[in-house]
Write a structure and sequence with these properties.
It is built from four helices and 21 strands. It is mainly β. The strands form five sheets. It has a five-stranded antiparallel sheet, covered by helices on one side. Strands 13, 15, 16, 17 and 20 form a five-stranded antiparallel sheet that branches. A four-stranded antiparallel sheet has the order 5-12-8-9, with no helix packed on it.
């Protein structure tokens, strides 16, 4: 652990207030920071007429830097009432106040959390057909008839939520509540995609990467038939980690799974994001405009991954057989165990965006990321 100083010009203090205060009261600022959801302990605060340095016992996470920015922007600089002892409120790792009993003694017990387990699974960085978050929906497209029952779509890298490439894929819906499954009609009659579990039957198959639909023998449309396809296609590699409405999401542990044959072709980027109206109201951007909070975490190489991870599991051997249900390549899993949970509050609109910086897919069998979280009601 190394002390880290965050320096703000005096003009940043109270910048979100009307009128802005542009002044600092160290006692009030100390209490505001101690009662916030910032995990790292405050060490000291030093202010001059021009700037204020806030020293923590260790470097803050990107989310905690965002919280500190909010505190500074809303600090009024007024002195605390004299001769009134400032109350001290303890908070849990998920930002909940610790209750007090007689004589204001904190009530602390070893019990299971009432937070709900929530696990988030990224898509596969090697497979663009899993990049669903920013996918674009195409409705009732008339594909090009390439002959022999093959129909070519206008876009490649169609989102595939049917072949086990995404954990939890069966329940994924786009932002408007539509399924990502490919839908084909012939003269208005819905067709059935071949079930990968059976490997036979059905009316058609899809080459998701190439963006083609193959109608199967006995189901090839006749001349003049109207074939229409509804689907989603991938655009960016952005994956979003955020709390549900009215909830706090605490990220406790992260794992990245890499097939041994992975080819690292792009920079993995973690960026904390927040709405401009909370974090930079002086910019005058429309409400809901998401802006980066601090510098991103950039993993330019496998060395960066190994250097930053807290531990790794022994290599997993190939398991499950040669079919699509099996894992064909040894897997290496790198882990990040957070001593203090990274907390995202719905009321602040906080999110973390995970992406490949240039949207270049990795090579190899697969590469994914899993976030183990706890979700609780925000009070």
């Amino acid at each position: 652990m190394a002390q880290t100083t965050y320096t703000y010009p005096i003009t940043d203090f109270g910048s979100a207030l009307v009128p802005p205060s542009h002044k600092v009261n160290v006692d009030r600022l100390t209490i505001q920071i101690q009662q916030s959801a910032i995990v790292t302990a405050l060490d000291s605060i030093g202010a001059t007429p021009a700037e204020c340095g806030i020293v923590f016992k260790d470097a803050l996470s990107l989310v905690d830097v965002g919280i500190l920015d909010i505190i500074v922007a809303n600090h009024n600089g007024e002195p605390m009432p004299s001769n009134i002892p400032a109350p001290v409120q303890l908070y849990t790792g998920t930002g909940q106040p610790v209750p007090s009993g007689a004589n204001n003694i904190p009530i602390i017990a070893s019990v299971k959390s009432d937070a709900t387990k929530k696990t988030l699974y990224s898509f596969d960085w090697t497979d663009k057909t899993t990049w669903y978050v920013d996918a674009v929906r195409v409705v009732a497209e008339a594909p090009t008839n390439s002959g022999a029952g093959l129909y070519t779509l206008a876009h490649q890298f169609v989102i595939d939520t049917y072949h086990g490439n995404l954990t939890g894929e069966d329940f994924l819906l786009d932002p408007n509540g539509f399924s990502y499954r490919v839908a084909v009609t012939v003269d208005g009659v819905a067709q059935v995609e071949q079930n990968p579990a059976l490997g036979s039957g059905g009316d058609f198959t899809v080459n998701y990467a190439a963006g083609t639909v193959q109608c199967l023998a006995g189901h090839i449309p006749g001349g003049g038939a109207v074939v229409l396809v509804t689907y989603h296609y991938a655009t960016t590699s952005r994956f979003v980690i955020k709390p549900d409405a009215g909830k706090i999401l605490a990220i406790d542990n992260v794992e990245c799974q890499f097939a041994e044959d992975v080819i690292y072709t792009d920079t993995v980027k973690f960026q904390a994001m927040g709405p401009s109206q909370f974090f930079a109201p002086q910019l005058g951007l429309p409400n809901g405009t998401m802006i980066p909070l601090g510098n991103p975490l950039l993993y330019k190489s496998m060395r960066d991954i190994f250097n930053d991870a807290s531990r790794a599991y022994p290599k997993y051997p190939p398991l499950g057989g040669p079919g699509w249900r099996g894992s064909q390549t040894p897997v290496i899993i790198c882990c990040w165990d957070y001593i203090g949970a990274t907390v995202l509050k719905s009321s602040l609109g906080l999110e973390i965006w995970l992406s490949l910086e240039n949207n270049i897919p990795f090579g190899g069998d697969f590469a994914t990321c899993t976030f183990y979280c706890a979700s609780s009601v925000e009070s």
